[in-house]
């Protein structure tokens, strides 16, 4: 029998809050979650893996609208693999541009730090003279 997880357990396994998981369910990023007779959500291992992937997409700052598009394609099956690749490639290109932008910022900071270190070195040399 497939192990089942409560929303609290899934939150612990994925790093998302229970409210975030409920939001994803409301937004239809997560569908067909089983429930106990008392109405308690019970997630399968497959659900947990999908939610982990959603958490990673969230960490990559993928917009929810794009995540929804991906979820719709995923639900449609293997006939949408090409579209899923295109969607993920588009986000990867966005991430690559962001990395370059961050590298530019780091280079500027390194330059400024170097200037200050030189200034500090010259100040210290004057003090020892």
What does this entry look like structurally?
This protein is mainly alpha-helical and 129 residues long. It has helices at residues 7-14, 18-26, 45-59, 64-76, 81-128; strands at 34-35, 41-42. Strand 1 (34-35) and strand 2 form a beta hairpin. The radius of gyration is 23 Å and the shape is elongated. The N and C termini lie far apart (80 Å). The model has no long low-confidence stretch (mean pLDDT 94).
> Unreliable stretches, pLDDT < 50, 5 or more residues?
none
Average of per-residue pLDDT values: 94
**Distance from first to last alpha carbon:** 80 Å
- Count up the helices: 5
What's the order of the H and E elements? HHEEHHH
What fraction of residues sit in β-strands?
Answer: under 5%
The radius of gyration over CA amounts to 23 Å
Number of extended strands:
2
Shape: elongated
| Helix amount | over 70%
Helix-and-strand structural type: mainly alpha
The side-by-side strand order for the widest beta sheet comes to 1-2
**Largest beta-sheet details:** 2 strands, antiparallel
């Amino acid at each position: 029998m497939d192990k089942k997880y409560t929303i609290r357990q899934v939150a612990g396994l994925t790093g998302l809050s229970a409210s975030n998981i409920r939001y994803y369910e409301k937004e239809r990023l997560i569908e067909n979650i089983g429930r106990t007779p008392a109405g308690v959500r019970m997630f399968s291992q497959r659900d947990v893996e999908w939610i982990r992937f959603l958490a990673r997409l969230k960490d990559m700052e993928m917009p929810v609208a794009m995540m929804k598009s991906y979820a719709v394609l995923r639900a449609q099956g293997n006939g949408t693999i090409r579209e899923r690749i295109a969607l993920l490639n588009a986000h990867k290109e966005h991430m690559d541009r962001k990395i370059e932008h961050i590298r530019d910022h780091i280079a500027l900071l390194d330059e400024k730090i170097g200037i200050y270190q030189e200034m500090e070195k010259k100040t210290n040399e004057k003090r020892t003279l």
